[in-house]
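Entry 12.
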Amino acid sequence: MRSRLGAAEALRQELREQGITVTPLDEAIATMRRLQQDRVQGDPREMTRLVEQALESLRQAEFDLWRRFSGGTESLPAVGDLSRVSPRYRALVEEYYRSIARDRP
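Predicted 3D structure (tokens):
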């Protein structure tokens, strides 16, 4: 969780430097911080609820960023002009997908 929280905060900082605010990303970060609290870690139902909430906020943030940076291409979220994406953002996205692949049972 600490690694993902750090990646999300780094992405938020990068976006802020570009003058971009993504509210769902802020919400996801706040939820991930709540997940690290001791009182939550002893409550499996609360942990499950917060994980689902964080994932939904991340999905919304990803979609918001896709819409913003799609460059007018309205076909699919996975399609886009990679040359217009900052290398740091691209690296964070690649790490995100690598971490998802590692977590599969």
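Annotation: The chain has one domain: 2-102. The radius of gyration is 15 Å.
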